[in-house]
Design goal:
- The protein has twelve helices and twelve strands.
- The radius of gyration is 21 Å and the shape is globular.
- Helices cover about 35% and strands about 15% of the residues.
- By secondary structure, it is α/β, with parallel strands linked by helices.
- The protein has two domains: about 110 residues, Rossmann fold, CATH 3.40.50.720; about 180 residues, NAD(P)-binding Rossmann-like Domain (Rossmann fold).
- The structure holds 2-keto-D-gluconic acid.
- 2-keto-D-gluconic acid binds next to loops.
């Protein structure tokens, strides 16, 4: 008999069809009576599959006492109740590394787009303003500017490689200096990092130590020539402080892939020319999503075969 799994939200169709052929699959988000579904499968459900944004709460896990693995389609596990999992012997896996290059590409793309006014220029061209009003307003150079990376993990390192190509001096703020990043400058204080750089890239995981850390003080330290680029989690940023900084031009601009209350983006962002917005899509290439899906499936297979997980969250 196949193992019973709960899928919290929609995933890549190829992953869902493999899950369907290998397991007895229940779709939480499609269920009209979610409590009834949880009660129905409580005796059988042994695994949860979810994406990084949805995670899984203790409320759900409490109703599924036989679950022994949560396999996350994403590197961020901030939406999974890790304390509950640890206390109840539930293994958690995620999909690190396979997405780092694409997320770093998105960070670079956002920095270029907001500085070089790519979206403004595109709209200017499409609206037929060029023949009427002439050349558009000037933008800002990225090449050679000072970059700060908040969170020097796998994504931070992939980003640093790209920034080197743009001949940008790199500083970083991390819980501790990294021996493999010795050629970059470690700055212990986030506020000090913001003060020193032209671009503050946010690639740190969302934890109790980082949530809310990009606040008004840090944004003011970044200053009127500074750009904030966030490809981590919206919760790291005080969004209303960011909005005021952008509206009052106390920072130069922002490139944002993530928001505090996804999928809702505060409407005030929509009228700002100095931001480029993305709907949390940094890992959203076919190649990376396939690789993430494979890791989700391989972690489940390892768990059910009694093997160590490939990418366990410790
Ligand atoms: C995904 C992510 O967009 O890896 C993460 O933590 O947030 C993203 O890669 C998400 O998990 C897929 O829905």
């Amino acid at each position: 008999m196949s193992h019973t799994l709960l899928l919290i939200g929609p995933l890549l169709p190829s992953v869902v069809s493999t899950l369907e052929s290998s397991y007895t699959l229940h779709r939480y988000w499609q269920s009209e009576d979610k409590d009834a579904l949880l009660a129905d499968i409580a005796d059988d459900c042994v695994a949860v599959v979810t994406d990084g944004g949805s995670g899984v709460s203790a409320d759900i896990l409490k109703k599924l006492p036989r679950v022994k693995i949560v396999s996350v389609f994403g590197v961020g596990v901030d939406a999974v109740d890790l304390d509950y999992c640890r206390d109840h012997g539930i293994n958690v896996s995620n999909t690190p590394d396979v997405l780092s290059d694409d997320v770093a590409d998105m960070a670079m793309a956002l920095a270029l787009a907001v500085s070089r006014k790519l979206i403004v220029g595109d709209q200017y061209a499409r609206a037929g303003k060029w023949p009427v009003s002439g050349a558009m307003s000037l933008s800002r150079r990225v090449m050679g500017k000072r970059a700060g990376i908040y969170g020097m993990g796998s994504i931070g390192k992939a980003l640093a490689q790209r920034l080197e190509g743009f001949r940008m001096p790199i500083s970083y703020c991390n819980r501790s200096p990294r021996s493999d990043s010795g050629h970059y400058t470690f700055v212990a204080s986030l506020q000090e990092l913001a003060r020193q750089v032209d671009y503050l890239f946010v690639t740190a995981a969302a934890t109790s130590g980082t949530i809310g850390s990009i606040n008004a003080t840090v944004l003011d330290a970044l200053g009127p020539d500074g750009y904030l680029i966030n490809v981590s989690r919206g919760t790291l940023v005080d969004e209303s402080a960011l909005l005021s900084s952008l509206q009052e031009k106390r920072i130069a601009g922002a490139g944002l892939d993530v928001f505090a209350n996804e999928p809702i983006i505060p409407e005030a962002f929509f009228s700002l020319e100095n931001v480029v917005l993305q709907p949390h899509n940094a890992s959203g290439t076919r190649e990376t999503r396939e690789a993430m899906g494979k890791l989700v499936l391989d972690n489940l297979a390892a768990h059910f075969a009694g093997q160590p997980l490939l990418t366990a969250v410790t």
